[in-house]
Amino acid sequence: MIQTSGVIICLGYIFGLLFTAVPWGGVWILVLGIVGAIFFRRRTTLRPFAQKPENAGSKNKAWQTTPHPRIWLAAGLVGLLATLYFQLRVPQPGAKDISQFVPAGNSSNQEQLVIVRGKVASNPRLTRSQRGQFWLETTQIDEVKNDKGSAGVPKGVTGKLYVTVPILQATGLYPSQEIAVTGILYKPRVASNPGGFDFQKFLKQEGTFAGLIGRQINVLEQERKWGWWQIRERIVRSQVRWLGIPEGPLVSAMVLGSKAVDLPYDIRDLFVQAGLAHALAASGFQTSLILSVILQLTRRASKGTQFTLGLLALIIFLSLTGFQPAVLRAVIMGFAALVGLLLKRKVKQFGSLLLAATLLLVFNPLWIWDLGFQLSFLATLGLIVTVPALVNRLAWLPPAIAA
Predict the structure, then answer these.
(1) Which of 5, 181, 257, 397 would staple 214 via disulfide (CB 3.0–4.6 Å)?
(2) DSSP H or E stretch at residue 387
(3) pTM for the predicted model, two decimal places
């Protein structure tokens, strides 16, 4: 009863977020909850009169497992609150956001140079146009009036910028480094064709409302602050040194994911064309491999030791790959498997998947429309649903081959 109630409420929350794409979606999900409550109320009131004395015990047992009408009403209310929560979490530019200082005309071709100061928030990556790209947490902006430099009073700003610069300018940058970028501010455009890439929507999901076409970078602070990016960089460099290029970056991407490793786009495209794009995404495969190795090496140790070492390995893996939806989903499900091992209980895969989805969407409801989040959960759900049925159909084969 408790498990069924939890599943219904979690699904109510997820469907509430999905209904944000529909006008008055929260009201519709509440109506569905009310309809479900009315239907099950009638069903539970009619069932006792339809029982036969000899089967009363089994009937009552089946009746008690039916979700109470209040559960459906609660799921509808949770779905309604989910739509409101989603609207509250949608990023909005503040009064001093850097996007407020984009020149009138909203064009990336307008030659109004500015100097933006801030801290690098990510490792530089190579774009398809062979430019370096990184995120910049802005603190100050100054307009360039003439060729001699800046003029006027610098203004304090907030917000994050999508910065692209010539590749040589981005070389050597690292997170938390303070820099000043000279370039042109612009606001992103929406998709020009239906179903096309919506650059404005992409930046908005990242909490960004403007971009900067950089021309020159001046480094203001050279001090290196420790971060997981340093360990990731050493791993990539060692694999490149021993395996060469492109084998080194490719192996790093298969271990840490292409979002953590700057893999050239021509290699990514080849994997996409071969239908192996998932091999470059950090998700359940790496998590399962890590846990399998840890549990195999510690098979003679106590359950508590296995749980501690497995949890530590998952935390290190998550820190190296970054807080991506697919990785978080895999880590939460891996943690559920460790808890089941510690308590000597079998973990239901569908329940752990649903719990992982709910926790992640509570943390960030905007991920409901993130393609990586959707593909990760739907692919895992497809495996959970189809694999047991396929294995049963192949029962005439040896178990290892059937699995």
Answers:
(1) 181
(2) helix 371-393
(3) 0.81
Confidence of residue 110 (pLDDT cuts 50, 70, 90): low
Q: What's phi and psi for 94, nearest 5 deg? A: -80, 180
The DSSP code for 302 is -
Q: pLDDT for 260-313, tens place per residue?
A: 888 888 888 898 899 888 888 887 788 888 899 999 999 888 888 999 999 999
- How many other CB atoms are found less than 10 A from the CB of residue 349? 18
At position 88, the amino acid (one-letter code) is L
What are phi and psi for residue 171, nearest 5 degrees?
-65, 130
| Start-end of H helices in 322-348 | 325-343
Using CA atoms, how far apart are residues 368 and 380, in angstroms rounded to an integer?
Answer: 16
Q: Are 318 and 329 in contact (CB under 8 A)?
A: no
Residue 72: is it exposed, middle or buried by C-beta count within 10 angstroms (0-12/13-18/19+)?
buried
3-state secondary structure of 226: coil
CA–CA dist 368, 19 (Å, integer):
10
Q: What's the rounded Cα separation, in Å, for the pair 125 and 257?
A: 14
CA distance 263 to 251: 10
301: which 2 tokens? 């140790």
Rounded Cα distance, 42 and 48, in Å: 11
